[in-house]
Structures are given as C-alpha cells and as structure tokens.
Write a structure and sequence with these properties.
single chain; alpha/beta; 7-stranded mixed beta sheet; 30 helices; 11% strand; DNA-binding
Amino acid sequence: MPLSKLNKEQLAAATAPKGKNLVIASAGTGKTSTIVARIAHLIQRGTPPERILLLTFTNKAAQEMVLRLGKFFPPQVTRKICAGTFHSVSNLLLKRLGRTLILKQPSELKTLLKSVLERRSFSRISDLKPYSGAYLYDIYSLFCNACEKDFAAWFSRNYEEQAEFAEIYADVLGEFEEQKAAFGYADFNDLLLKMREALATHKFDFAEVLVDEYQDTNSLQGSLIDAFDAESLFCVGDFDQSIYAFNGANIGIIGSFSLRYKDAKIFALNTNYRSTAKILELANRVIENNERLYPKRLEVGRAGECKPPRLLVFDELFAQYDNIAQTIAQSPLPKEEVAIIFRNNSSADGIEMALRERGIGCKRRGGVEFLESREIKALVDLVGILVNPKDIFGMLHTLEYARGVGAAAAREIYEILSAVGHKSVVCGLLEPDLTANYKQKERVNSQMGLFSDFSEFLPSSRFGALGLDAEFMKNPVLNYSNLNANGALFVSQIRDFLLQVRGQVVSEFVIKSAINSKLYANIVDVLATKRATLKNGNVDLARADEAKKKIYAKAEVLAQMTKRHPNIYNFYNFLTLGVGELEGGNGVNLLTVHASKGLEFGLVFVVDLAQGRFPNLKMMSSVEEERRLFYVAVTRAKDELVLSYAKYDKIRKVEYMPSCFLVEAGMAEGGGGSVAGSSGGSGSSGSGVEN
DNA sequence: ACTACGCCCCTTTTT
DNA sequence: GGGGCGTAGT
C-alpha cells in the first residue's frame, strides 16, 4: 500500500484530517509520493474518486500520479479522478457544463492585439514609444492572473514609466476583448476566468482539492481554488522552488495560507532522499542567499560515499557542449538517467548538435516547434475554420498560400464570406445568403472617391473556364474584383474541404480529409517549392519532391495524435493546451530549468552558468528568482552534478564571466564582487559584472 | 494600392 | 531561423 512506505512526516501529512492542509515540501523530500498516498488514503476512507480534484503544473505530472495510483487501484477507479493543470481541468469541466471554449494560440492573439493597438495614435499624448502588442498582451495576461479589477489603475502602479498611456491601453484592451469575442477566440486566461464564473452558479462538490507546486499558484488560480469551495484542501509546495513570477505566481498565497484559513494545518517534509550530501550542501549554500520565508532544515536522507559536484570551465561554447557529449558517451548510465539543464532554450540546439555528432540521441520538448512549423500550422488553421467558423486568422493564413492573394485581399475575402454567411465563413462558402449586403464599407482610403462600390465587384462569369461548382459560381465572393483565377480556384478548394468535413466531429476523419485534400496539396506544393529553391532562383525538383515527402510524413504525425483525442473540438484545444508538453526523441534529457521541475536524474549537467545567461539579467526577473531557478536545477541531481560554462561564444561574439551562483557556491572566483540583490552575500567590492 | 521578395534584426521562462 | 521593414514590380 502506498502509505506503508512513507516516513513519519510524510505519513502525518498524507493522513491529515480533512481541512485546510499545507505541506511544505523541500526538493526531493517525497512530495509526489505524499500526494499519491494522500489520494490513496482518501479513496481507502471512502471518498469517491470522482470527488477528488488534483491540480498540477503540467499534465504530465498529473498523469504520472494517476499512473502510480494505478498500482493500487483498478483503472475504473483512477480514471474517475479529476486530474490535470488548472487550464486543462477548466477546459474539461466547462465542456461538461456545455460551455466549451475554442482556444487560440497566444501568438495569434498577440497579432490581434497588435492590430488594435496600431489603429491608435499615441504620439498626440507623448513622445514615449508605446509597448508592442506582444508585450502589452503579456502585461494584460499578468493583470488577468493578478485578479485585479481596474486595469488602468493596476497598470499605472506597476508600469509607471508608461502610466500616461494607462487609459488608452485599457481602452485598447476593451476593444481587443470585443474583437476576441467577435472572432470566437478564447485564451488560457479565459479558461480560468470562465471556470471561476461558472463556479459561481454551479458547484462541482469536490471532497478535496489537491494542489501540487502550490508556490507557483497565481492569484487567479488561487481564487479558482477557493471558488471550488471544497470541503478539504491539500496544498503542497516549496517557496524556494517558486520560479513562475513572470506568470504571476504569487508567493503570498503560500505565505498567507494559515492567515487565510483559520483552521489551517501545516506539515513539513524535511528529509531529502534524492540527492547526495554534497549536492545538497551546494544547493543550500546558494539558496541561503535568499531571504527566508520560513526556516528550513533540510536533512540528508542518503548516506555513504559520493562524488562532489564539479565545475568545468571552457574557452568556447562549443567546447563545452562537445566535452559534455563526450562525458555522456563514456558514462555507463542509461541515457534516460542523464539530463542537461539550461536557463534558455537557445542553448538546446547547440547541445543537440554536439550530442548528435557523437551519435547520442536526446529527448527534448518538441511540441511547440512541431505546431509552429508551417505545414502543421496550415492543417491546424483548416481545422480552426471548421471548429470556429469566425476564425479570421485560420482563414487569412490559409488564403495567403494562394498566389496573387495577399494580406489585403485575404481580409476582404474573409469580410465578404463572413457577411454572406452571417458571421460564419463556413456558411458563407457553403450556403451564402445572396440577399446579404456584402458591399458594406466605403473605402476609407480612397479620398478621391475613385473607387465606387460597383467598380470593386465584377461578374463571376469571368471564372467560367475554371469549371467551378455551379452552386459556388453564385457566391458573391467571386465578384470581388481583386480575386484572380488562381485565388478563385483556391477559395473553391477551401469550400470543397469544408463540404467534406462539415458537421464531422471525428478528429481522425477531419485531419485525414485535410491532409488528403486538393487544397493541402496546393499548400504543400508552395512550401516544398520554396524549400527547394536554390540561391540562383532555380527549383531543384528532386529536392522539392523530398520536401513534400517530409511534409506529408509530418502531417501523418499530427494524424496519429488524433488517436488520443477522438473528438475534433477536444483535439483542437489539445493542440493549444497540451502540445507544449509533448516530447520528441529518446535518450539524454534536454530541459529548461522550468521544464525540469519535479523531475530527477542520476547525472545532471547545468550548462551555460555564465553571468548574463544564468542568471538571465533581463528586465522582468529578479536575482532571487534566478537563484531559485539555480536551486531547482541543481536539486534535480541524484548522484552526480556537473556545472559548466564557456568564457566565449564565438557565434554571438560575447565574453562571459562565471555566474554569480558559482561564486556563491564557492566554486568560482567572482569577476567583480557580489551580486546585487543578494542579502548577506560575502564581499561587496564595487559594481556588478560586465556583459 | 497591393503583392512579392530580399535584407537585417533579435531570440526568457509556461499553461 | 523567423518576423519586420523597405523596395521593386504589377
């Protein structure tokens, strides 16, 4: 039974009476085992599994815990446990209530916000350069996650340098929300906001809500936990591992637990079973430079001989990666037990290259890159139009593959189809309302009045030779004067695809239809030709053929993914919600520090520990947060820890000093004194480190 | 006015 | 390697 293997501290927490329970669990102290045991305890005591809600930071973590429970309970029990991230659980529960949202990638919503922003004039107010759409979106997201009500007031407080724009930004964001609604889009935050809204009128009656990585909970998520209003709470976290400040993580939530819940009970797990004494000493030496929120006495649970952590310094970046690859090649450990951890994703490519040169495979997150590739994006956009017929981006991105149709024409085509389809481009293509007024707006730009409504529209008979569907020939979109034959054919292919998949909900069918469509063949042709175009402008046909094969192979990977999500709406949301967690490859684990949280490996390399890279000294982050990142990174190691950096990057032509954390760990000489922001650091000679 | 193409910029971390 | 911007061409 899962409870029998626990130590005294873990057992006390796992068997705590129902109530508001907080477990402070330092790195490697058996946090996951305790949560698993807690759930087992609840089920054994008669709590129905469907009344247990487990909120984790990644879906993978949730799956793993449910999998572990699978050793003790049959699948029909574990299957009923509601487990996942705040977002995926909200997605699931909203669907149960019949309030399904259709998610759109943040990158697309940033583009939408940018377009709203660009229509405003800021120069009348100030010479100050306004924030970019992407940055404002991130700020707005932070605002949503902070649970504040008045954007302008909140913004003025937190972004003083642009406080004079607070009112315009607030107005822009209001318009952005209108546009989002008009196009049928929802984002990550909407999922949580709508969930909380739904909870005001609908109770799910959970017996206990368990929250993993509680230190990374932000205010919106915190309010959601309260909105569930469960009989019992079981929150597990560690302040020293709070690394999501950029996402609004509010340490006050874990810090004020006992103040907010008057019958709160606090447990602590202090014995580390994961790492050797020397690794823990190093981790603690560094993290002690952060102000303590609560006293911590981490006890070493492992005894015996151990290798001390090593620092490797190299002259050049690639020498570092190559040496690590060599060390790994010689290591007897299974590759899955080895991890290379870095602060920025930009380190990953070089490392992967070095590993490959020595024939070592690696596993890294491939989901985002996969989804961002043009060939997959094109398919996702096609599905987007089906599941959300208002999807302007899906339509625009698709149309841009038609030669002769650019951004302006694509927009016009969308507007016409939307008008004759009563806001649905699918209707606009398949059953246009011929009586609808699609010649709406006068051209704002034509000051001379040169273009009247009539001159913009031509008879569709000009496409007579194309052999288009007779029904489609009546479609007003064909009257649009800037549409050429190629464009008309392309639009008719979009129509053919929609005709085939309309009303279909089986994701495999929809994706396969898209892949096999004439339309996609057209898109693939454009992509393959581009990829096979040589410097002199000629197209290498053999290479184009190869490119096509690669594209279709990749598309097949997407088709395979439908197996796990048979409903097309679920599948579509999964692409936004879960694809980032997908992994590709086999072998050595390549991870960002953020992605490494909660994992452990026999041998860990933390690379690029150079001042500026790690800590990453950009605007939003604090040294304390970077220090916690370092703490998380080194505490992933069970037996052996190797730290490294290179003094020079020949590609970027930058020289590096050792990371201040190496200095704090006593492994390197400081380049120029202590680090700003560290409390109680040794020696404070002068300024910080250059570059 | 719009589209297409070539050149230069930058590149945190996640759901 | 991709997005933004300036320029040439329709």
